[in-house]
Amino acid sequence: MGTVLGAIAGGRVPVGNAAGDAVTSWLNPLSLVIGALFVATSAYICAVFLVSDARRAGAADVERYFTTRALASAIITGILAGLALLPLHSDAR
């Protein structure tokens, strides 16, 4: 979903997709970075919800495990968001 949104936002997919290249319209730096950002954001949200579930269940070891995962995915998401600025700047009109 992220790669599709990145391709459309970058203006590489023409209306009807008849005039666009079947490969480069969808696979480009902006699409790939936005797709990775979607995955990283989803991983962060999942880890945060699992921390909450582990806290409610009283499983402190599982809570620590998913807290570490949530922090790691938050850092990765932040890095990807910063990296997304490069292709966004080159594709901006």
Please bin the fraction of helical residues: over 70%
What's the N-to-C terminus distance? 23 Å
Please write the string of helix (H) and strand (E) elements: HHH
**Number of DSSP E strands:** 0
Shape: elongated
Rg is 17 Å
Proportion of strand residues = under 5%
Q: Pairing-aware structural class of the strands and helices? A: mainly alpha
Give the overall pLDDT as a whole number: 86
Number of domains: 1
Number of helices: 3
Taking pLDDT < 50 over at least 5 consecutive residues as the criterion, the unreliable ranges are none
Give the biggest sheet: none
Describe this structure in words.
The chain is mostly helical. The chain has one domain. It is built from 3 helices and no strands. Helix 1 (2-9) runs antiparallel to helix 2 and helix 2 (29-57) packs antiparallel against helix 3 (60-91). The longest helix has 32 residues, at 60-91. The mean pLDDT is 86.
Break the fold down into its secondary structure elements and pairings.
Layout: H1 2-9, H2 29-57, H3 60-91
Summarize the structure.
With 93 residues, this protein is mostly helical. It is built from 3 helices and no strands.
Features:
93 residues; mainly alpha; 3 helices; 0% strand
